[in-house]
Automatic annotation (TrEMBL):
Residues 446-662 form the SGNH domain. The keyword Ubl conjugation does not apply. This is Acyltransferase. It comes from Cellulomonas humilata. Keywords: Acyltransferase, Membrane, Transferase, Transmembrane, Transmembrane helix. It holds the Pfam family SGNH. The chain crosses the membrane at residues 46-67, 88-107, 158-174, 181-209, 215-232, 239-257, 263-283, 304-324, 330-348, 369-390.
Length: 669
């Protein structure tokens, strides 16, 4: 799962011996995630670096809290939170402020509304919950946010809020028995792990981002901290073999996992276990190879800068890539990632370290730090809103009006963004089919059929529109046709679920198959006059080598399953661009051609040929939509004054409506 992951900073516990091997573990973790985000081949699972940080954080924080409990019988919550804030927030606030300003100055203006929301959620310490909500929204298909890496910081901050209280309560309940404390917390950790497994089957995005499904990773580190005093002196606590096995598990995960790995789930247990073993095995130091590497000067240097390196590397990559439509070569990604290290060094020297020991905060009551943190959050919210308003004031069109020629075949593409563009670039987000507001575009996890009639609701003539969101993009045209010509349109649409009987590498294949079967059964019992099939061309196949054959067979299987009395028709695949068309146009107001692309790149010729061939074999109609959107070589962004796409691959409602007459003439005349 290609999601940005930034670890929260962790400080060496006061009065506890410094563990240089843990500093080395930080270096490994930061290197894995940074190289993964730079798209280095062979590190498809580099995101496990954040799991390494989770375990380290849980270990160090629990070590400190347990020592305080043993020494005083209580936990100074205000002092604890103040120390955490002095360690985490200064660098976090600086990078967040710089990223917000840089985004407003550099990124496409259309990205700023979401960036502002992301920055506000981050400033309020809930970025993980915000990004989880975004991830479960089927309309959210935006490029990565420069703040997305703050999600793991949110998880840790929320963990720090609850873990001390849990530790204190359980300690009192078990009457200070260390063994009972470990057993009780092990139950909590096991519960979080089990919840992670369950939520992975229901809402994988929430399993990835939320504290309840991630707490077990920090909890494992906490259990190691509680167990270590009881096992120190045993052979495995000073074993290079144990350290080596732990590192091997972490590195193997980074190499063998990729974006298709169901994560966290059971897979996260491997890097978590590996980190726990490395911490246990290095408890008494080891002069053998693993310990020597972890304690080496390069590893110590990078480990010391790991927090700020994480904070800087992601916005550097995202903000630069946003100007280049995410077409950044590997060498440039590596250079940007490398640039985060000197920035981290400056941040560590002038922000992190000084603020942690700032006398104005450390010599005053803890509430001073807490109030300073609150003030910083408020200032960041004000900054984000201000930069958003400044960005919104930028013009997003030229001064020229374009002729309202409509869509033609072959198309005549506009040279620039006209002043009378419809929908406008700022208004395109609201230009979506009514099915979304009507809850008729089923979400990924849904499968139950819904009654979704459009067009002439009183007519006995029925046209069924069946497919994914690419079927729904044709609803405006069919709704208008139905109202005009007297037929009802029944919509059967589910996001990410093709009408063709194929299996993809998706977390929701089971729900998709169930939905498809329910639709076909319903159509068999209630045969419509016409069944229209339309599906996105951007699928994620189990085996790309067999994808073309699977698609042909799956489309044929669906056509075979339709009622014999119904006319069948396929609306051909439409283009899928590498990036959002409105976002691109907001950067190229005077050169709309910069957002066009080669026809064979944005739509597979094989897919078009397969659709037409299967339609012909089954006596089905085939509407070549691509002929109105692309010429022989190019697929453009604007025709006349009509904006064609609302994102990378969905037609605007205006474009769909403009093609209603052509579609109606093809289907009914």
């Amino acid at each position: 799962m290609d999601v940005a992951s930034a670890p929260a900073a962790t400080e060496t516990v006061r009065r506890a011996p410094f563990r240089p091997d843990i500093e080395g573990l930080r270096a490994i973790a930061v290197a894995l995630v940074v190289l993964y985000h730079a798209r280095v081949p062979g590190l498809g699972g580099g995101y496990v670096g954040v799991d390494v940080f989770f375990v380290i954080s849980g270990f160090l924080i629990t070590n400190h809290l347990a020592a305080e409990l043993t020494r005083t019988g209580r936990i100074g919550f205000a002092q604890f939170y103040a120390r955490r804030m002095r360690r985490i927030l200064p660098a976090s606030f600086v990078v967040l402020a710089v990223s917000t300003v840089a985004a407003a100055l550099v990124m496409p203006p259309l990205r700023m509304p979401e960036v502002v929301k992301d920055a506000i959620a981050t400033a309020l310490y809930v970025p993980n919950m915000w990004f989880a909500r975004q991830g479960t929204d089927y309309l959210a298909e935006t490029a990565p946010s420069p703040m997305q890496h703050y999600w793991s910081l949110g998880v840790e901050e929320q963990f720090y809020l609850l873990w001390p209280l849990l530790l204190l309560v359980v300690t009192l309940l078990v009457k200070r028995s260390r063994s009972r404390l470990v057993a009780a917390l092990a139950v909590v950790v096991a519960g979080s792990f089990a919840l992670n497994l369950v939520v992975m089957t229901i809402a994988p995005t929430w399993a990835f981002f939320s504290l309840p499904t991630r707490a077990w990773e920090l909890g494992v580190g906490g259990l190691v901290a509680l167990l270590l005093p009881q096992v120190v002196g045993r052979r495995f606590t000073g074993s290079p073999v144990v350290v080596g096995v732990g590192l091997l598990l972490v590195l193997a995960s980074a190499v063998l996992y990729d974006e298709s790995t169901a994560f966290p789930g059971l897979a996260a247990a491997v890097p978590v276990l590996g980190t726990a073993l490395a911490i246990l095995g290095g408890a008494q130091g080891t002069g053998a190879l693993p310990g020597t590497v972890l304690r080496s000067r390069p590893f110590q240097y990078l480990g010391r800068l790991s927090y700020s390196t994480y904070l800087w590397h992601w916005p550097l990559l995202v903000i630069v890539e946003s100007r280049l439509a995410n077409k950044v070569p590997l060498w440039a990604s590596l250079a940007l990632a490398a640039a985060s290290v000197p920035l981290a060094a400056l941040t560590y020297r002038y922000v992190e370290d000084p603020m942690r020991h700032l006398g104005a905060l450390t010599r005053r009551p803890a509430r001073t730090t807490l109030l300073a943190g609150l003030a910083g959050s408020v200032a960041l919210v004000v900054l984000a809103v201000g930069m958003g308003q400044w960005s919104a004031s930028k013009p997003l069109a030229t001064s020229r009006d374009a002729a309202s020629t409509g869509l033609t075949a072959p198309p005549a593409f506009a040279d620039d963004v006209p002043a009378n563009l419809t929908p406008s670039l700022r208004g395109v987000d609201a230009d979506i089919p009514a099915a979304y507001a009507d809850s008729c575009q089923l979400e990924y996890a849904a499968s139950a059929l819904r009654d979704c009639p459009y067009g002439d609701l009183t007519s006995d003539r029925v046209v069924a529109l069946f497919g994914d969101s690419h079927a729904t993009q044709w609803l405006p045209a069919l709704d208008a046709l139905g109202t005009e010509q007297g037929f009802r349109v029944d919509l059967y649409a589910k996001s990410g679920c093709p009408s063709a009987d194929v299996v993809q590498t998706s977390d929701y294949d089971a729900q998709c198959a169930q939905f498809r079967q329910l639709v076909l059964a319903h159509l068999a019992e209630n045969p419509p006059e016409l069944v229209l099939l339309s599906t996105s061309g951007r699928q994620y196949w189990r085996d790309p080598a067999t994808a073309e054959a699977e698609w042909r067979d799956g489309l044929a299987a669906t056509l075979d399953a339709l009622p014999a009395t119904s006319t069948a028709a396929i609306i051909g695949t439409t283009p899928n661009f590498d990036g959002s068309i409105p976002t691109c146009l907001s950067l190229h107001l005077a050169d709309a051609a910069a957002c066009a692309d080669d026809r064979d790149h944005v739509i597979e010729p094989e897919r078009l040929a397969d659709e037409a061939a299967v339609a012909a074999e089954h006596g089905a109609l085939y509407f070549p939509a691509v002929d109105y959107l692309c010429d022989a070589e190019t697929c453009g962004a604007i025709e006349g004054n009509i904006l064609l796409y609302r994102d990378e691959h969905h037609l605007t409602t205006v474009a769909s409506l403009d093609l209603a007459d052509e579609l109606g003439a093809f289907l009914f005349e």
